[in-house]
Amino acid sequence: MTLMEDNKIEKIGRNSMSFRLFLKELEIEETNNDLNIERYDPSLTIYFNWQIYLQFVKIPNFLGSLKANNLSAFYVKVKNKKISRFFKCSFPQKITALYLSSHQYPPMNISPIFNSLMRASSKVSQRIGFDRFKFSAHQLKRVIASFKHIKKICFYCCKISVPAVIDFSQILTNTMIKMLAFNRSGGSMYSDWERNPQEFRNLIKGLASSPDFKLSFRRICADNCGIEKNEIWKILNENGFYDINISA
């Protein structure tokens, strides 16, 4: 890419021109089924295939200069090193919500992009969602700790390992988390909480070790997780969580 092209792209970013025009300038095929981009001022929503996105991820400062409401990424290929570069160099300076989906089964191990994603956590202000990823207990702990400043953390169709109680007592000070969602993550195809209810108990008991989390937490979603609503209510109450809205 020439210096002139670089300057043109920077000008597009500064003038908040349409993202559609940005794609046209880069000669990216807009009608590809894997790419559907909308630009609306002052918000940005992106749905993309990472392989398509790599055609313009080499321009790191464009997205990085934006403030956006929602950023959604589907078909995440975690072994591609340029995805980590996206989180490091191209991630918008502030977004309201981030949603990542591997769009595959079994859930994809999140490890290759995990550290880069955690470094970008402060740029997400309200919500984050993961769809079809695999998390170790250590990674789950880091996600909740790194995003403690946001209101909602969602794990959809994820495989979550909690073989022992996680200690959250010192890492959720002043947390703002109000809702955790695990829809389908406890199902038989994923974490299988029906056969392994102790893992769900370990999770709740660990979260209960944080006084500030107890003050902020107000809602849990556990639809299709293999645990009845009454059982969830019982586990929450045993650990000092009262008046929690339960969806199951």
What's the SSE blueprint?
Blueprint: H1 3-14, H2 19-25, E1 35-40, E2 43-48, H3 50-53, H4 60-64, E3 67-73, H5 81-90, E4 94-101, E5 108-109, H6 111-119, E6 124-131, E7 133-135, H7 137-146, E8 152-156, E9 159-160, E10 179-181, H8 197-207, H9 211-216, E11 219-221, H10 229-238, E12 245-247
Parallel strand pairs: 3-4, 4-6, 5-7, 6-8, 7-9, 8-10, 10-11, 11-12
Antiparallel strand pairs: 1-2
Report on the structure:
It is a single chain. With 248 residues, the protein is α/β, with parallel strands linked by helices. It has two domains: 1-129, no CATH class; 136-248, no CATH class. 34% of the residues lie in helices and 23% in strands. It has ten helices and twelve strands. The strands form three sheets. A seven-stranded parallel β-sheet has the order 3-4-6-8-10-11-12, with helices on one face. Strand 11, helix 10 and strand 12 form a beta-alpha-beta unit. The longest helix is centred in the N-terminal third of the chain and has 12 residues, at 3-14. It is globular. The protein starts with a helix and ends with a strand.
